[in-house]
Design a protein that fits this description.
It contains one helix and 30 strands. It is mostly beta strands and 428 residues long.
Length: 428
Amino acid sequence: MRWAILLFFLSVFSSNVTGQSNPVARSLPYSEDFSSLPAASTTYPDGWQGWQLSTSGTNTTFRTVSPLSDLSLQGNSSASTTAGGVHNYNGKIGLLASSSTDPSISLSVRTTMHTSVSVTYDVMTIRNPYDSASNTKINEVTLQLRLGTSGSFTTLAGIEYRNNTVTQTGSGVTTPQNPETKTITLPDSCSNRDIVQLRWVRREVSGSGYRPSFAVDNIQITGTYDVSLPVTMRGASATVEDGKVVIRFATASEIGIAGFNVMRALESTGPFDLISGYATNPGLAVSGSATGGASYYFADVKVSPGMTYYYQIQVVSNSGKVAQAGDLLEVSVGAPASFVVHQNFPNPFNPVTAIFYELPAPGNVSLKVFDAIGRVVETLVESREGAGFHTVKFDGSMHPSGVYFYSMRVEVQGGQIFSAAGKMVLSR
C-alpha cells in the first residue's frame, strides 16, 4: 500500500515538472539578431524557449505535437558539438537532434492590432557531418505555428531548408554554412491575436550516420497596423486617486464585442502587459449588445510613486479580433503631498476592513488597533516604510463586535512626528 501511495505522488510530481514553459509574447514589430547574447549564455532571450518534441530524433515527417518539456539553452556550442538539444552558436540559436532528442526552438509574439503578419529570418547549417561515406544525413528544417499556448502546431509550406553536402565539424566553428533568408506571410487567423507561437522544427529526409544542426538569426516580424474597431468610443481617462491609477472609459455603441482588456507598459512603445481583462474581470465584460453604449471603470492598485505608466484599452470582438480602443493613456504617479490617514473602508465592517494612509516621506510607522477601553488588540504595522500610498487590512474575525480605534504614529528623519487616529465599528 505504501509503495502504491509513493508511486502515485511520484507520478503527480513527474507530470508537474515535465510540461512546457510558454514564453511571454513579444509585441510587433519585433526583431532579434542575438548580437547581445554572449556565446556562453544559457539564458534564452525574452520570448524564446527550447522544447523537446519527442525522445526520438528519428522522424521523417515534421512533428506537430504539443511539446513534451522544456530544453535548456546550451552555451559555447559549435560545429563540433554532438549533444542533442538547443544550442547557443555565438550569435545564433540552433537545434541538433539525437537518437533520444527531437528539439525545437519557439518564439511567442503578440499580433494585436496587426494584420498581414510577415516573418523573415535567416536559416543556416552549423554542424554538417556529411562525408559521402558513413555520414550522409540530409535533414530539413521549417517553421510551424499555433494560436495560443495549447494544442497541435501547423506546418508552414514553401520555406523548407536542407543542409548541403559540404563537411563542417571543426571545434569552435560557428560560421553559417549555406545561409538562406526565408520570408512568409502568416495566415489571416494569426492577425489580431494575443499569442501566436512560432517554432522551428526538423525532420530526416535521407541518409544515415550523424545528423546536421541548424540555426536561425536576424528574425523580423512585422504587420499592417489595424485600428478598426467593433465599438465606438466616447472617451477614456487615467487619473491618480488615493494612490491608485483609475481608468475610466465609455462607449457610444458596442455591437458584437465580448469585452475589454486593460494593458500597461512603462514605455509608450511597450511592451504592454495585460493587467486586467474581461475573461477574469466581470466589470470589463459586455453582456449582449449596447447600441447606447456603456461606462467602465478599473483601478490599478499596483503602482509606485515617481513612476510614469502607459495604458492601452483593447476591445475584443465575439470572433476573437483584438484592437486598440481609444488613444494611449499616460499618467504619472507622484508622492503624496502630506501625511494622511483615511477612514477605514468598509465601515462598519464584518470581518475585514482596510485602512489607507499616505506618506510624503519615508519614516518609521506604527499602526495599532485598540478596543473601547484602550487595550491594544493588534499591531498592524511596526516597520520603516517608504514614501507613497499604503494599505493595510484588519481582520476582526477573532474579536467581538463593537467599537475599535486605530492609531498611527510616524517618525521621519529629523525627529518630526506625525500622528492620527480613526474610529471603526465591527458589526456581526
